[in-house]
Amino acid sequence: MNLKAPFVLKRIVAVSSLLLLLLLITMLIGISIGSTGNGVKAVLQSLFGGGADSILNTIVWQIRFPRVLLAALVGATLSLGGLVFQALLRNPLAEPYILGISGGSAIGAIIGILAGLSRFPGVSFTAFLGSIATLLLLLIMSSGQSILKKNTLLLSGVMVNAFCGAIIMFLVSMTQDSRLHNIIFWLMGDLSMSDIGQVGILALTLLPCFIILFRYSHSMNLLLMGNEMAQTMGVNIKRVTTILLVVTSFMVSSTVCHCGLLGFVGLVMPHLLRLILGPDHRVLVPACILGGGAYMVICDLLARTFPQQGEMPAGVITAMIGAPLFIYLLKRSKR
Amino acid sequence: MKKAVEIKSLSFSYIDNEVLKNLSFSISEGEFFIIIGPNGSGKTTLMKTIAGILKPKQGKLRIFDRPLKDYTRKDLAKTVALVPQMAGLDFPFTVTELVLMGRSPHLSMLGFEQEKDLEIADKAMTLTGVDHLAHRKIDQLSGGECQRVFIARAICQEPKIILLDEPTASLDLAHQVKVMDLMEKLKKEIGFTVIVVLHDVNLAAMYGSHLLLLNAGIIASLGKPKDVLTRQLLEKTYNCKLLVDESPAGKFPRITLVPGLGGRGLGD
């Protein structure tokens, strides 16, 4: 065998530094490009102090930076969420939304919008409540022993999501005024409402989640062998499953309430990275955080620069790139 | 001789279906212990109970003189390793990665393998004859190769007991003998206690030092192959016509099926 001892650690460091570099570059591009066309150089100056242009300083720090940071956090969370759910359910097609988190938070958000609440904290809060409520419902539905049976969880999630879909359509069809536009925008995913304070809080919330999930990355490898095999290799299934499920759901809920529904990131990124890097979760967890972040920053950049006027919801771009890419990957991996 | 597994009045039920009924027996260290019996007789359930996957409803189960429930998951994984029935894997690990997973009960939190773990994995792969496949993906292997990779993974756990659930079920003749020979070798060279669930009574006759014949969750017979594999007992347990004589290949019974009389022609 031509492997040397801490080879996993070395791979993690190598992959992470590469993807971190990629993320930083995309973030820099994201901050540099906007409706006021300033060069990278001027933006760099105002980022690292010494920018003479106070208007540009404001744009960079108050508008672009929080938005790009939010995009990176959202992409990281959704990719990592997809990775965890794929391991947990041993189903390569799982993604965060499959457990009904999207449906629940969408209902919460729509109710908030219909009640005329402000975007933050009002609608975000009702969206968060909605997703936590569906999660609790799901946990109660599949409680006890059966939480370990992946199909129970998966099927319950699909059903909860379908039910939520019906309620969403009901609420949408009952709404006719300008609030309809807000609802549609939220349902398609939208990163435009970012404020440095909120994004900062979100980042502080997510960081411990990332660390916990990384700590359980080797357990996720063993989970892929099946629950019974993982047990015989020393994994405390009940504890690990519960921690992964709760931490990931909390992480995704806190993100979705800021950005609306963004599909396909959670499905495509883990697959893409797994194809390139192999299935070891100790490498994939940091890779999904950094790579997923970079993907979302690019998608958001396209979403706000592509249209001549205004911008389109980022969810449109993630799905437009994500869906064909996924089909391509699926065909390739079948071979 | 130390007792590797000691079972006293053990029962197990799935909801209201009692699968194991009041079993009592023990397995000594270093035995090649084979569990046989018809479909649904509780073989796999018994194996999963010994592996600590299923919790017995009643009765006592001790592994090396220590109650099973006193073991932590990690401690148990260092004592008992399970080789599952051929399982499909959607996630393409390499052979080395998979074999190294057997080290996990010995590793710290994140599971970073040290030089020593790589050496153990290397040895296990050489022992099971899959070292030349080290960099192949697990989903590109044949059934026989896959089986030996999973055995190498079990060896890496450095257990005292290895459990195998129908290890020959999907293998051709040569690979069946290869896997059983390998287990015999591991028993002799490393001193494993080997516990195997088998469908093939002839393989059980050839390799088992002790046989347990289960029928509907009850011990139909327990002992040396020539005492367990008698025509009368087997015909009654499997409910079909059989011939039993001494195998021309060695001093063990040979069981031959008789076509056309399956399940009938016995009552009279």
Describe this structure in words.
- The complex is a heterodimer of chains A (335) and B (268).
- Chain A is an all-alpha fold.
- Chain A has one domain (31-334): ABC transporter involved in vitamin B12 uptake, BtuC (Orthogonal Bundle), CATH 1.10.3470.10.
- Helix content of chain A is 76%, strand content 0%.
- Chain A contains 14 helices and no strands.
- Chain A has helices at residues 7-32, 40-47, 54-88, 101-114, 119-141, 150-174, 179-188, 196-215, 217-223, 227-232, 237-259, 265-277, 281-305, 314-334.
- In chain A, helix 1 (7-32) packs antiparallel against helix 3 and helix 4 (101-114) runs antiparallel to helix 7 (179-188).
- The two termini of chain A are 28 Å apart.
- The model of chain A has no long low-confidence stretch (mean pLDDT 83).
- Chain B has one domain (3-224): Rossmann fold.
- In chain B, the strands form 3 sheets. In chain B, strands 6-7-8-3-9-10 form a 6-stranded mixed sheet, sandwiched between helices. In chain B, strands 2-1-4-5 form a 4-stranded antiparallel sheet, covered by helices on one side.
- In chain B, strand 11 (242-246) and strand 12 form a beta hairpin.
- In chain B, helix 3 (95-101) packs parallel to helix 5 (143-156) and helix 4 crosses helix 5 (143-156).
- Chain B contains 9 helices and 12 strands.
- In chain B, 31% of the residues lie in helices and 27% in strands.
- Chain B starts with a strand and ends in an 11-residue tail after the last strand.
- The mean pLDDT of chain B is 90.
- With 268 residues, chain B is of the alpha/beta class.
- In chain B, 41% of the residues are buried.
- Chains A and B meet through helix 1, helix 9 and helix 10 of A and helix 2, strand 6, helix 3 and helix 4 of B.
Q: Can I get a quick summary?
A:
Chain B: This is Heme ABC transporter ATP-binding protein. The complex is a heterodimer of chains A (335) and B (268). Chain A has 335 residues and is an all-alpha fold.
